Structures are given as C-alpha cells and as structure tokens.
Predict the structure.
Amino acid sequence: MGPMVIVLAIVIVLAVVVLFWGIASTVGAGDRAIEDRLEQYTSGVAEPIALGKGEKEKGPSLLAAGVDKAIAGRGFADKIATQLARADVKLTPGEYVLLSITSILGLFLIGYLLFRKSLLMAGGAAVLGFYAPGIYLKIQQRRRLNAFNDQLGDTINLLVNSLRSGYSLLQSMETVARELPPPISEEFARVVREVGLGLSNEQAMNNMLRRIQSDDLDLMITAINVQHEVGGNLAEILEIIGYTIRERVRIKGEIRVLTAQGVISSYVISFLPIGMGLLLYLMNPDYLGAMFTELCGWIMMGGAVTGIIIGFIATQKIVRIEV
C-alpha cells in the first residue's frame, strides 16, 4: 500500500501544478499574439502584430514554448494545430498538450476522491480526461461549421451585389469581413490579409477551405477558381450557387425540427443507464461493487455497454438525414 500512496501523491502534485499553470497561461495570453501564432500553423503566413505604445508582445509561457519546440515538425503536432484552427481555439499545440495532461491528471484525482479511492473508477475518469479535450474541439468545430454554413447564403448574396456594383472580388470580400458577424467575417478577413501578404486568391481561399471543411464553401471556391481560369459572369454563377445553398440550409432546418425529438430521445436513452449506475455506486458502493469483482458482473457490464453503443449509433443513423 506504501508505493501506491507515493504514486498517488506524485500524481496529485503534478495535477495541481499543471492545473494552476493551465489556468495562468490561458488567462494571461493575449488574444492578438495567440491569433498570430495560430496563423503560423494554419496559413503558413504570419501577420505582423501592430503593438501600441508601451505594449509588449505576450507569448506562450516557457513551459508551453518548450513543448511547442519539442513537438515542432511532428505529424501529430500539425494535426493538433489544424484541429485548433478549425475550432477557433486560441491555443498553440504545446498549450493544448499540457492542458490535455492537466485534464487527465485532474479527472484521475477527482475520480479517486469521488469514488472512495477506487483505482478502477479513477482510471476510467482518467480515460475520460484523455478524450475530453478532443470532444470539446469536435463540438466547437461542429458549432462553428454550422454557423458558417448558415451565414454562407447571405454572404454569397452580398458578394453578388458588391460585384454588380463594380467592386472587385477582393473588395467584395473586404465588404463581407466588415459587414457580417463572425465566424464568416473572421475567415474572409483572414483571406484578405493573406492576399495582402502576397498569396494568390486561390491559395488564400484554399487555406480558408482547409480551416472550414464545408461542402458549400468548396462549391463556391471551385466556381470562383473556374471563372478565374475560363472567364464568365461571376455574379450570375454565385447567384445560382447562393440560391442552392440557401435552399439547402432551409431544408436542413426543417429536418432538424422534425428529428429533434428523436435526437433528444437517443441521448436520454443512452446516458440514463450510465447516470443511474454512477448514482447507485455513489449511494451504495458495496451493492454495485460486485459488478466489478465477479466474472458475471463483468459480462453484464460488457453486454450493457455494447448494447448502449449499438443503440446510440443506430438511433443517430436514423435521425441524421443528409441533404
């Protein structure tokens, strides 16, 4: 029991240290400096930071900078940077790695104390801590992508009107960046900055497509690139595409309304047994503890988890209708 106590004490100390570092670095980082570092990973071009009088550029902490240097050039670091850019999370890959470690250690400690020093449940909480940052990024990416797609129809309409009034394509994108709300204004403003730094329109828009994996955006960018190569009336092409996108968004909204009850039911049915099991374990661990000590209990737990996963996937497939 002695070595286990020592190991637990080390884990607790590491969790506290990394947790306090994560809070301090997240609060202290400047948004402009972080956005500039993020653009170095996403677009390959860093925009110079205009500092006011008396201001100092705020960078990552020494620990995060060391981790960034250690993982620079590795494949997983590039993937992390891409995922952070798609979610618009103002962190570097090193900061994300350290916050992931904080999540693992913190949830391990919480699980150990909450479930009455059960290493099995603490290990399960640590596994949840490993996946939690990735799940959060996926949720943020989906929200941002949905918001972008909802705004894209109006954006194309604004581009068409600007082109017909005599503006160039770049000036029309500046109008979008100035007049529309985020996230679409942020992406078009980044395209305008990249073109101003020397990238071609095609490269800058492809960078935006890499950050926003939208089929509708891909259709718009393809039409602009084709028109640039062969010529034609870009305003008329974009008007047809904009109408198609707006109709698709309208149909998707109707589908979401019709399938909302099924979506909520699938989440409730899937997570209700898990919540009830955790609640029973906290109320009476001896009663439910046999599920983790007997072979029959493990078989029952495996069958229950398998059934929940299969049922959740099946219900999600039923209610998710692609348009």
Remarks:
- DSSP finds 13 helices and no strands in the chain.
- Confidence is low (pLDDT under 50) at residues 24-34, 40-57.
- The chain has three domains: 2-49+58-140, 146-247, 252-319.
